[in-house]
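Lecture notes, continued. The same structure-token format from the folding unit now serves as the input rather than the output. Read the line below as a description of shape only.
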């Protein structure tokens, strides 16, 4: 009670001294020994970014595991929608092996590309601006991830060069070209094109964002996952909700 009164007195003195608002540095300094003051908006933004980055690290670690895109996995990337007609045609011609080969290699490329994506996500998270950080902090379980999701198109674009390299490396690019050529050789085949690189990049970004959102929910509800001072200080603000 004494500390609370001292804090209120300090705030009143600062206001009386014609200080229209308390600086973030002052608020955080007071909050370091008077937790009920709460972190500043800039500190909350820092904590949200730290949480997203930690979630990205765990997401990339999980999605780059050997079994992450294996057959039967929830992360498995299906054959692109543009190839559904092609797939049916190739099966009728008893050439469905080419379809399954392409699907396997696309998933190999997706897994490898997820392993490359951490730098892309870290750069985007570092630039992330929270207009209403307190509102995000006190929002739903994946509220911070939803802000990051607003940059999804930019993340896909930044990841594309890495995906192209992985597509070549695992043989997915060649498998895609071979399949398209086989299809075009069929008499009266309809025109067909598919951007395999973009499809893989979109899949990687989508899967990583989903994993980050799930991690954010755990970070909010499981204090033991907060492995830094900024995470402990910021997310403690919403523990009693």
């Amino acid at each position: 009670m004494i500390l609370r009164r001292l804090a209120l007195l300090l705030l009143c003195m600062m206001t009386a001294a014609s200080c229209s608002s308390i600086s973030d540095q002052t608020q955080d300094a007071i909050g370091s020994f008077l937790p009920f003051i709460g972190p500043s908006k800039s500190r909350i933004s820092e904590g949200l970014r730290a949480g997203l980055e930690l979630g990205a690290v765990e997401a990339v670690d999980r999605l780059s595991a050997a079994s992450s895109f294996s057959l039967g996995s929830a992360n498995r990337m299906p054959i692109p929608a543009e190839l559904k007609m092609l797939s049916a045609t190739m099966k009728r011609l008893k050439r469905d092996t080419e379809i399954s080969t392409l699907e396997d290699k696309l998933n190999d490329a997706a897994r490898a590309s997820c392993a490359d994506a951490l730098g892309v996500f870290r750069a985007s998270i570092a630039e992330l601006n929270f207009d209403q950080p307190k509102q995000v902090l006190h929002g739903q379980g994946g509220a911070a991830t939803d802000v990051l999701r607003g940059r999804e198109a930019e993340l896909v674009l930044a990841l594309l060069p890495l995906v192209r390299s992985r597509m070549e490396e695992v043989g997915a690019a060649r498998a895609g070209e071979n399949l398209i050529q086989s299809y075009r050789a069929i008499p009266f085949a309809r025109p067909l094109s598919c951007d395999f690189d973009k499809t893989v990049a979109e899949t990687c970004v989508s899967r990583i964002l989903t994993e980050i959102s799930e991690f954010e929910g755990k970070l909010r509800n499981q204090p033991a996952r907060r492995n830094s001072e900024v995470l402990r200080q910021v997310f403690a603000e919403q523990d009693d909700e």
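Point for the exam: Confidence is low (pLDDT under 50) at residues 12-20, 26-36.
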